[in-house]
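Input chain follows. Return structure tokens only.
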Amino acid sequence: IVFAAAGTAGQRCTTMRRLIVHESIADELVDKVVAAYKTLTIGDPRDESVLVGPLINEGAYEGMQKSLETAKEQGGEVLVGGNRVIVDDTENSFYVEPAVVRMPEQTDIVHNETFAPILYVITYSDLDEAIALHNAVPQGLSSAIFTQDNSEAEIFISASGSDCGIANVNIGTSGAEIGGAFGGEKETGGGRESGSDAWKAYMRRATNTVNYSGELPLAQGVKFL
């Protein structure tokens, strides 16, 4: 969860933006995620000890701050992160602490994609509710379920489960398997790259019908009297 949400400073199309967690374990899990966030090293990404690099520019930083303020206005609580970090006196760079925000429900801000490390946490009581929350947003690229229940996993990756182009089981959302088709649905766009569909982009489809009969039959068996 932490890697998928905070990796690449949240600036990845497959970044985990929402953590939909069962109400019975939400407090325990959130405490563990927050504790892990507090250990993240922030700085020059060329340093092998650094886990979180900078945002791309000031606009990305301002967008993150606006989203956090909106989340708080909609009842959210910022549990950790969100502050700017000055690294090596680089005042023109925008490093930030990845943020975790506990939300009372899936409000409007949770439906938006902020290209920054913000993880919204919402709870659910049963799998149908979780899938409904999951599919309610306009984006549809990557998703994941963490479960030891095979039936839940099968439901999630079926047509009645995740509506994303990528649906993982017990693997985070970020990145993609190189051998699999990559692409999304809804506002994330259609079509696929890589995987078994990749070669089709280099081909053109042709239909060839060869008549070896010595006669000249017409289509659909039509006959002229």
